[in-house]
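Worked problem 6 (solution included).
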Amino acid sequence: MAKLADALDLGSSVERRASSSLALGTNNSNAWTRRKIRAVLCFKCLMGNHNEIDYIELPANNAAEFSKVKSFYGRVFGWEYEQWGDDYADTKDSGVGSGISAERPSKAPLVVIYVSDIDAAYNKVMAAGGKITKEMFSFPGGRRFHFNDPAGNELAAWSE
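Solution. The predicted structure is:
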């Protein structure tokens, strides 16, 4: 709740500044718009996007392919990666968060869904007929698990 309260304080602070600018007759509409956008983005960051796809993990079959794929996206789209060990890297430059993984060779990208309660999501997947393909594990950003939907598509769910 502290994060939420901080975000709300930021938002009301921005609104107070905008109201006072308008009352004084100053024309700061561009500055007001930038402040409001920053406040909304900050609020969204703090709240997370519960039950939304926010990450895609692209597979590589081995270390050599991993390096080539990372280089490819860097050269083509200018994406810069942060390395997390020998077989994993991620980027925030791709619009939606994305990573490259050589730790689980596959031909299909892994879609990752953010959830606010990872344990509840795990139980819901099981109750709805999903199959857990990788049990819950911790990583530097939180915890996640992998599952198959009824059609056999593998996805993952994660939370802080």
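Discussion: The beta strands are 52-59, 82-83, 88-91, 97-101, 110-114, 131-139, 142-148, 154-159.
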